[in-house]
Fold these 4 entries.
Entry 1:
Amino acid sequence: MRAWILVIVLMWLAGCQATPSTLPQAEPLPAEACHWPAPEAARNVTLDAVASALEEEGFLIRHTDTGLGLVSAERSQRTFYHYHGIDPWPRLGGFVLGGRGHVASGVMLGIGTGIGPVTDEATRVERVSVMVGEQTLQVTRDLRLFGWRGDLVESRTASDADFCQRLHTAIRLQLAGEVAR
């Protein structure tokens, strides 16, 4: 191969390599209810209230960083999922036509899946991070669904208004309990 052809091919391939025009963003964006003004209480008291509120919701606290004002929590549950019309298992079967006009009958033995919860069993992992800043408190949440073999079936952000409003109320109740003590 001549060197000039190689140079043209390399330049053409280099043109395909481009940087993205925007950085990746969470889809869908977190709801407006997922960030609100920070409480008047001290940051450590607020972090304790956030951790207590998440534990009451059934979350397990995975990490806290008082310097950053971050609380990360997780909860998981066993559930079932459906394949949304895509069957992961091949189906075997069919029929055979005989030659020269012969007609035949027979018995077919089929092996299939559909044993029930064995193939549809999954684990749903929900992760929440709460960032307590000087002026605002921000919540992010994501959901992941792992199939019974451990493969990731679904992953999405879930910072919806309903969850954030419930958490906001729980944090306010925890802070009110701290003040009353």
Entry 2:
Amino acid sequence: MATKKEEKQFEKERKAAAKARQRRMKEIGIEKFLTPEQIKYNRRQRAISAVWPVFRFLILFGLCFIILYPLIFMLSTAFRPSEQMNDPSIIWIPKSFTMDNVKQTWGVMKFDKTLINTIILNLVASILQVVTCSITGYGFARFKFKGKNILFGIVIMMIVVPPQITTIPLYMQFAHFKPEFLAKLFTLGRSASLINSPWTMYLPALFANGIRAGLFIFIFRQFFRGLPKELEDAAYLDGCSPLYTYVKIMIPNARQSFLTVFLFSIVWYWNDYYVSSSFFTNNDTVALMLKNLNTNLIQQLFDGQSVSVRQIIVWLEAGCLLSITPILVMYVFLQRYFVEGIEKSGLAN
């Protein structure tokens, strides 16, 4: 199987050979031996070959601008002094740059403490969710048991049903958690309620019911179904149990899917504010801080005075920049493995 480098080299040589063949045809005047229809066809193909790269560039440039417009506007605004927002002569590039917006927003959001809390919450919940969803997806892919189709239908419902439907029952369950000795164990003896405790995120993830868990189970199921059955048969012949086979045989072959699901989980937990705001009354996560940033800016920077969004938009965009920077840094370092995981996981099937 040819590598990407060899494929690129082959395509380059093919194009060079085609150009050389066209040059030879021109040199010997091959068009004298062609019919008028063939001559028109060749000229039309040459015109298309000349115009298509320009047309393709314009399409891609337009699409990229539409997709990147919010990011460009955010970068242009976050480092701009607030008084320049009312200057009609400034569109994209400000006359001067400042870091005060970022520094002030950092303080309002308590970003150092908030970032640490969010990373710990996201990492623990994502790791638990990857482990439990992979085991569940492996069970659906490889084992036959009564009620399998019904249970998988419930998994599909987890993808379709919005979280707003299950939030109130979950809140009541966590607010009046029973047995109480477990609640006191989770909260270190402070109360019998799990509200404002990270366990409101950890427990659903531990039981494969966290944020977007249905989609992750489906991804693992599709990937494990695509692996050769002979791998497990050989392990069973060697005396391996199903769990040992899963750990030693299936997990090494599913590295890309694990990484894909882990990155998806990190991003969705990072951006979640609906579920978090239902279980946390304190602003402990980046998403919640960003959601309430407008109110906090008015209270701390403007002493509670009523201001328009245009007056504080530079601080709002600075907050957006701070919130997405860790995710962008993570993607820069892991994007190659992420793309490979998308290609090989159930999303590509």
Entry 3:
Amino acid sequence: MAFYSNESIFQVLFVTLVLGGGCAVLAGHAIALTWRSIWIAAISMVPLGMAVRFVHFALFNETLLQPQAYLAETAILIAAACLSFQRTRAQQMVRQYYWLYEPSGPLGWRLRQDAPAKA
């Protein structure tokens, strides 16, 4: 936690994980619902990382332009958004194509054993 000189661990976790991570999860879910690519979810976390960095700056008087902290926070946000995206996409595939796919863990799907054969 050398990046954050003016904040406690609870403040960092609240801003980065709860506020930023919550937004990342919701964004990943929404992007998956519109059938867009996972790359859109990852790229959209770049400005969200900037917003999280700004919240640290505005509320807790941290340095605004701190590249290491920004990269760490953005990596956490990308991970949260991609996990949410993949979970939503797996649910979509199983729900929409129920005759073809079945769940395979929380993040995946597989071809059903009784799926129709190719003609």
Entry 4:
Amino acid sequence: MSTIRILLATTLLALLCACASAPYAQRTSERQAAYAAAAGAPVRNFRFFTLYSWEPLSDRQVVIYTRGNEAWLLDLGGGCPEISFVNTIGLTSNLNQVMVGFDKVLTGRNNFPCTISQIRPVDVKSLKAAQLRQRQIRSEPRSADKPAAAQ
């Protein structure tokens, strides 16, 4: 009897986890699409002094903000499996320049290196405008007529 309860509880938990991950996956793909649309042509390097903030988009992409209004979309060659699960990251640089193929994103306790395969500047202004448009709610006044079933 208790084995059946354990199996039912485990099955219920698995179903709840599956339902909870669907909206997360949708939000993640929307974020990836928004950043891809706001990203410019690839560049070889960018100036780096401070890591303002960052956001993992997948195990192959991360967005690095060097200022509140300056961001870079980094593609990570070979993937970076830890990036979605760590609290902090680091970037290597040489003379305050982060370069494609040379510098890395460092993750985890052991600073697992993830090679940067592409850098694209993000137009933060257009990204924020697109996010604002997505949040807008279209409202229409209700009809003054009552539905026929309610009469």
